[in-house]
From TrEMBL:
Segments crossing the lipid bilayer: 12-31, 37-56
Keyword terms: Membrane, Transmembrane, Transmembrane helix
UniProt protein name: Uncharacterized protein
Amino acid sequence: MSKQAHGHTPAAWTGVVISFVGFCISGAGMIMASTLVVVLGMVVAFVVAGAVGLAMKGAGLGKQPDPSVEQYKAEFRAARSAGTPEAVTVGA
């Protein structure tokens, strides 16, 4: 599991920090009873954080593919397309 670096990338952390700021803005908007500020915070939390995270991932700052996992997927697809009964247990 640790080899996959699930969530331990600059893109993931930046998205989380921006989402946290957006939720804080929405929380302040709830206290102020301002629908506009709540909606603005949700836009920051979902749209802006998602866009920035995806842009950073596209720039190479996200999770990099693991070659051994990609090899296993290719072997599994080949066995499954061949229709062999061992398709379920390839690599097990």
